[in-house]
Amino acid sequence: MIDATDPVSMIAALVTVFTSAAVVWLMIAAGLRESPWACACLAGANALLAASFLLHGALGLTLPGHYWWSDVLSLAAIGLIRLAVPLIGERPAPWVVVLSAVIGIGAATTLLASGQQSLLHKTLLYGAMGAMALYAALDAGRLLCVRGLRSRTSLALASPLIVVGLLILARPVEALLAPGRTADIDVDSTFNIAWLWASLVLALLINGWIAFLLLMKLILEIRRLTERDPLTDAFNRRALAEAMDLEHARQMRGHGYALVLLDMDRFKQLNDTLGHAAGDAALKTLVMVAQPCLRETDRLGRLGGEEFCVLLPHTGIAGAALVAERIRALLEAHRFEWNGQDWALTASFGIAESSARDISAAEVLKRADQALYRAKAQGRNVVQAVEVEEAAGRT
């Protein structure tokens, strides 16, 4: 049983938790092909934290300079967690920065006053660990945003690592506010007991949270594969249709939307002249040019071939025209080169806005298609719109 008021018992519990977590992450790294380097980093981080608490001396294991080794191992462990998060997202990890920080701060602490009570020692060491944890939280938020979650949701899911960073920073803050009363973690004090309990809870939470982060990555990747066009990474036809139906349901409650239909000009000629690989590159270029013109709530989807559609929630026909014209101008100004040959990329645009008369989003799309047909008839590379009344007059 754990004595909830004894720091030595709490440290023993932490060593057990970190050791168990290290074994689990090693098993995952060996048996799961998903992010094996990230799992290896997490196994190493937990092993180093277990060793750090063992070397602290509270459990009877003492070595020359054991306090220094304990602190440096803790710093290295947080550094490995800092590396693991971008590795989960298959992004470059800041190996050089983390290694330099561990070596530099480890070397600097040897020059400070010996003993556990060194104020500068605590401030430097725990400040660096807290900063690494907070940077890891920032990376986690970015990872989830890139995988398709909204910013607020990503921040909420990254909050456990933020709490860890703040908990680590609590040590130097306590040392700064009460330098005379600062005690090492194996000393029986109210602050230490509370800090060790929080560390125990967060040790369980953070390992579970990173496992959840791995699971979320897999889920979001699967969702992305089912929603995205494999060539351009725009939404596929089915996903765009679902988004349009959802937006049309909101329109029934008074929230209008607009559709921008765009079709690349002379695409068949481009394919015949430069080849299908050039055509694929041109479609990717169109999406690349269009994306910066869109909001987080907008949806760009590929309907098929060289035809795309942009869903603009809470937008009227005037706003849609501005977006379409911006994309048209940027695409026209973009230099497209294939195997040393330049090709002028342009597109024609048809826009329409929703109306209370529309039974479904298909009616709005039909008007946008009529506008696109008009744009093609007027010589291409232009933006045209069809109003509800105009479309009704034709029927």
Shape: elongated
As for the number of domains, it is: 2
Order of helices and strands: HHHHHHHHHEHHEEHEEEHEH
CATH topology term of the largest domain: Rhopdopsin 7-helix transmembrane proteins
Radius of gyration: 29 Å
Mind telling me the CATH class of the largest domain? Mainly Alpha
Largest beta-sheet characterization: 5 strands, mixed
Q: What is the strand tally?
A: 7
Q: What share of residues are in beta strands?
A: 5-15%
Task: Quickly count the helices.
Answer: 14
CATH architecture descriptor text of the largest domain: Up-down Bundle
**pLDDT < 50 runs, ≥5 residues:** none
InterPro entries: Diguanylate_Cyclase, GGDEF_dom, Nucleotide_cyclase, Rev_trsase/Diguanyl_cyclase
GO molecular function, one term: diguanylate cyclase activity
Pfam family, one: GGDEF
Catalytic activity: 2 GTP = 3',3'-c-di-GMP + 2 diphosphate
Outline of the structure:
The chain is α+β, with helices and mostly antiparallel strands. The chain has 14 helices and 7 strands.
SSE diagram, text form:
Blueprint: H1 7-31, H2 36-55, H3 66-88, H4 95-110, H5 119-146, H6 151-157, H7 159-177, H8 190-227, H9 237-251, E1 257-264, H10 267-274, H11 276-290, E2 299-304, E3 307-313, H12 317-333, E4 335-338, E5 341-344, E6 347-353, H13 361-377, E7 383-385, H14 388-394
Parallel strand pairs: 6-7
Antiparallel strand pairs: 1-3, 1-6, 2-3, 4-5
Helix pairs in contact: 1-2, 1-8, 2-3, 3-4, 3-5, 4-5, 5-6, 5-7, 7-8, 10-11
Keywords: Membrane, Transmembrane, Transmembrane helix
Pfam family, one: GGDEF
Protein name: diguanylate cyclase
